[in-house]
Design goal:
There is one protein chain. The protein has 120 residues and is mainly α. It is built from 4 helices and no strands. The longest helix is centred in the middle third of the chain and has 37 residues. It starts with a helix and ends with a helix.
């Protein structure tokens, strides 16, 4: 299990990441308003803006999904379950947490899930 100092360091990183994502989401919201507000008489320009709007929407969904993972990790820190695999309940490898602090699964369980999901 992670030490208190390591957990605090992970929490600080997650809180910073949450702020970064919030700033990006605000920028994407503004970008979306700008792009969707444009209407063109030229079909090429309109197609360009429609594509840009789809790209902004896709990026927004990716960042929202990451934000949800960050929020879940912060909740696990606060309820004392951070660093334990959601599937097998064994400790998650410290190197894995250092690289990806919002991870919910140990390497072995993640690989199993990916194999299962690929087969489905």
């Amino acid at each position: 299990m992670e030490t208190t100092i390591a957990i605090r360091r992970h929490e600080e990183r997650l809180l910073r990441r949450r702020q970064e994502i919030a700033a990006v989401l605000e920028h994407l919201r503004q970008e979306s308003e700008e792009v969707t507000g444009n209407r063109h008489f030229d079909w090429v320009d309109q197609a360009w803006d429609d594509n840009a709007a789809r790209t902004v929407d896709h990026l927004t969904e990716l960042y929202r999904a990451e934000l949800a993972g960050v929020e879940r990790a912060i909740a696990r820190i606060r309820n004392g379950t951070f660093g334990s695999c959601r599937a097998c309940h064994r400790p998650i490898e410290p190197a894995r947490l250092n690289s990806f602090p919002q991870t919910e699964f140990c390497r072995e369980c993640r690989e199993f899930r990916e194999t299962f999901e690929a087969a489905a």
